[in-house]
């Protein structure tokens, strides 16, 4: 589907992440064979590098900015897309990674700890992030009364919540709002160059008894994440943040 969320934020990222029980293979031939397979399917991913913490990444740049990527860490395999015109740009790459990982990286169902689908929304704001988050999301709630202590100022406000979506707890949704204001921004009117970030994740833990298929679970999680973004995240979190930032500018 077309990307309907870009108008609510200054940056949108769509990620898929598989976390494994065991460490992923690190042999040269295995790693290069996996990335070469991905590159044959998506030739624009042509920049390969090793990061300082050992992360191996194959990425595509558009106008000097990372657009799509696939990354391998010690126990994590991820694929993402920045500001996609439509979600299929991200989903196609992620589906390819899920399809080839059993054969190229020996990731079996038994080895998968969790599968995440995540939307990240960035909101540019050069001011105190914690104050604007508290204003936008706490409102007149009981939580906001904490900051009504005489003489109190908002020093940190990074709300995070997890909801179980099934009785067995194997399907979960998590939302977190991250402030990038440091101590100086909290105490003075310094300006932060980094955005406020909203993270929304739908996570699936494979069941030890039921048959689990990562591709099928991925498709269901994507549909659920999109639905919840429309139904809960945009009206109750993204729009209030955007409005509070606009009123302060």
Quick structural summary:
The chain has helices spanning 28-41, 88-104, 129-137, 183-187, 214-248, and strands at 11-20, 47-50, 56-62, 65-72, 76-82, 112-123, 160-164, 171-178, 196-204.
What are its keywords?
alpha+beta, 32% helix, 249 residues, nine-stranded antiparallel β-sheet
State the shape: globular
Order of strands, main sheet, comes to 2-3-4-5-1-6-9-8-7
Straight-line N-to-C gap: 32 Å
Radius of gyration: 20 Å
What is the count of helical runs? 5
Biggest sheet character = 9 strands, antiparallel
* Unreliable sequence segments: none
Q: How confident is the prediction overall: mean pLDDT?
A: 90
**How many separate domains?**
1
Helix content: 25-40%
Order of helices and strands: EHEEEEHEHEEHEH
What fraction of residues sit in β-strands?
Answer: 25-35%
Number of DSSP strands?
A: 9
Overall structural class, as computed from helix and strand content, comes to: alpha+beta
Characterize the structure shown.
The protein has helices spanning 28-41, 88-104, 129-137, 183-187, 214-248; strands spanning 11-20, 47-50, 56-62, 65-72, 76-82, 112-123, 160-164, 171-178, 196-204. With 249 residues, the protein is of the alpha+beta class. It has a 9-stranded antiparallel beta sheet. The mean pLDDT is 90.
């Amino acid at each position: 589907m077309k990307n309907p969320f870009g108008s609510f934020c200054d940056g949108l990222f769509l990620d898929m992440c598989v976390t494994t029980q065991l460490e992923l293979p690190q042999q040269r031939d295995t790693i290069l064979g996996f990335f070469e397979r991905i590159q044959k399917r998506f030739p624009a991913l042509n920049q390969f590098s090793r990061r300082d913490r050992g992360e191996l990444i194959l990425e595509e740049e558009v106008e000097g900015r990372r657009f799509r990527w696939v990354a391998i860490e010690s126990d994590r395999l991820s694929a993402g897309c920045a500001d996609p015109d439509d979600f299929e740009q991200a989903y196609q790459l992620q589906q390819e990674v899920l399809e080839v990982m059993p054969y190229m990286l020996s990731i079996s169902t038994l080895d998968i700890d969790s599968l995440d689908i995540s939307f990240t929304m960035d909101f540019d704001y050069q001011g105190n992030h914690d104050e604007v988050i508290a204003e936008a999301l706490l409102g007149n709630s009981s939580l906001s009364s904490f900051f009504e202590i005489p003489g109190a100022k908002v020093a940190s406000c990074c709300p995070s919540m997890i909801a179980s979506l099934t009785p067995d707890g194997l399907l979960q949704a998590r939302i977190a709002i991250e402030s990038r204001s440091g101590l100086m921004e909290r105490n003075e009117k310094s300006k932060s160059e980094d955005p406020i970030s909203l993270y929304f994740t739908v996570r699936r833990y494979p069941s030890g008894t039921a048959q689990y298929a990562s591709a099928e679970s991925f498709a269901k999680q994507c549909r659920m994440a999109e639905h919840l973004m429309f139904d809960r995240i945009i009206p109750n979190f993204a729009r209030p943040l955007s409005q509070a930032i606009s009123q302060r500018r």
